[in-house]
Design the sequence.
């Protein structure tokens, strides 16, 4: 959620909104950034936040009871919600001020009128899901993720670093194992 708002703000104003209270609210990156620059910066921001959350919150709690990890997750969720309301107080009023990514003209599908951007969004979601499923099924990283998820000690014995796998996946392998 925060990344979507940060992307929107970067694309609209050229300001990168920082997610840590106590730091400056905004850094001006550039005037009128292209869509691909705003997207790349948002992806890098998401990766940085994910690694930071893993290192500061979830890694230290990986052996904690499940309830402790759930409480930590809810705390992060509430922090993100509050941060969005503090950093983006008027975002709802200005949502239509930037150019949409996909064309929005309506199209008729089986008698229903659907905005074209919804069809594009569905296609992007399906393609991204298929790419991620293929990556986790057929790549070395996917096999390493499954191995670390099944047995952290076994992964260590075959030379995999469960911490490295977990930081790339942005969660703890032990957490996935306990949810099964």
Sequence:
């Amino acid at each position: 959620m925060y990344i979507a708002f940060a992307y929107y703000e970067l694309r609209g104003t050229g300001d990168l909104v920082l997610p840590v209270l106590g730091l400056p609210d905004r850094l001006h990156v550039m005037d009128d950034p292209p869509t691909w620059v705003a997207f790349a910066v948002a992806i890098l921001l998401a990766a940085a936040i994910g690694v930071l959350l893993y290192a500061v919150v979830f890694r230290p709690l990986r052996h904690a009871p499940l309830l402790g990890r759930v409480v930590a997750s809810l705390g992060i969720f509430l922090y993100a919600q509050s941060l969005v309301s503090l950093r983006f107080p008027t975002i709802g009023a200005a949502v239509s001020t930037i150019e949409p990514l996909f064309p929005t003209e309506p199209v008729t599908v089986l008698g229903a009128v659907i905005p074209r951007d919804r069809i594009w969004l569905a296609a992007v979601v399906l393609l991204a899901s298929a790419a991620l499923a293929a990556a986790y099924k057929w790549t070395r990283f996917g096999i390493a993720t499954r191995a670390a998820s099944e047995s952290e000690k076994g992964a260590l014995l075959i030379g995999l670093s469960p911490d490295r796998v977990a930081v790339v996946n942005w969660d703890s392998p032990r957490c996935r194992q306990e949810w099964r």
In short: The first helix runs from residue 2 to 13. The radius of gyration is 20 Å. The CA atoms of residues 72 and 78 lie 10 Å apart. Residues 171-180 have pLDDT under 50 and may be disordered.
